[in-house]
Amino acid sequence: MLEYCEFRELNEDVLRECGGFLCKDRDITEFFTREYADYAYQLLGKSYCFVEQDKHRIVGAFTVANSSIRADLLPSSRRNRLNRNIPNEKRRPQYPAVLVGQLAVSDGYMGQHIGDEILDAIKSWFIEPLNKTGCRYIVVDALNNPKIFDFYQRNGFKFLFSTEEEEWTFLHGRRTAEEQSAMQPMHTRLMYFDLILLRTQ
User: How far apart are CA 51 and CA 9, in angstroms?
Assistant: First the structure.
C-alpha cells in the first residue's frame, strides 16, 4: 500500500489538504491533529505521515525522537542479550536508538498491514547510507495490550525486560511490600528492535 503513498512531514498544510487525521484512539488522533506541532517546536520529536496520492488522505502517521538504551543499567541477562551482536571493542554503556513515540493507521485503512509497512519504512530509514546519524536500535513504549505486543513481536521487536516487575524496578526502584500487594499492570512496556539484523540479512 505504501508504494502508492507520498512520504511527508506532518504539518498544518498536509492536515488541511487531507481533511485531517482520524484513528480509533482518541488520544493519538489528538496528538496527530494538534499536539505534534508543539512537540516538534520544543525539539522533542518529529512527526511524519504517508499520504495516499490518489485520494489525498493520510494513511498512517508516526513520530520519532532521539533516544538511547542504557545497557549499563540493565540486569546482566538483558545486557548480555543486547551485547551479543556487538563486537567487544564496540561495546558501550549506552547505545544510540530512535524512539517511535506514536504510530497510528487511519481509520479507513485498518486491517491492511499498513502498520507493518510503516515499521519497515522506519527501519529502512535508519540503515540507509544517507542517514545522518548512527542508530543501532528502535525503541517503542508499547501499550500494555496483547494485540499491541503481538504486532510489535511480529515485526521483530523484543521486550527490553523479561518481566513487568523487572521493568518497574529499573524505572522506579524496588517496591515496598505494600506497593507489591497493590501492584497494577504497567500502562506500557519497553520493546526494541536491533537494526543490525537488517544488515546481516
Answer: 10
pLDDT in tens, 73-102: 888 888 888 888 899 999 999 999 999 999
Q: How many CB atoms lie within 10 A of CB 157?
A: 22
Rounded mean pLDDT, 163-183:
72
- Residue 31 pLDDT exceeds 70: yes
Alpha-carbon distance of 139 to 137, in angstroms, equals: 6
- Region for residue 43 given its phi and psi (left: phi exceeds 0; alpha: psi -120 to 50; beta: otherwise): left
Residue (of 9, 8, 35, 33) closest to 23 by Cα position: 33
Q: What is the DSSP letter of 11?
A: -
* Rounded Cα gap, residues 130 and 144, in angstroms: 35
By DSSP bridging, strand 46-52 and strand 94-105 are unpaired
Task: Taking each helix axis as running N to C, give the angle between helix 146-154 and helix 114-125, from 0 to 180 degrees, rounded to the nearest 10.
Answer: 50
The tally of CA atoms less than 13 A away on the side-chain side of residue 117 is 18
Tell me if 9 sits within 8 A of 46, measured CB to CB: yes
Short-list 10, 8, 6, CA closest to 21: 10
Contacts of 25 (CB under 8 A, 6+ apart): 104
Per the CB < 8 A criterion, the answer to whether 185 and 144 are in contact is: yes
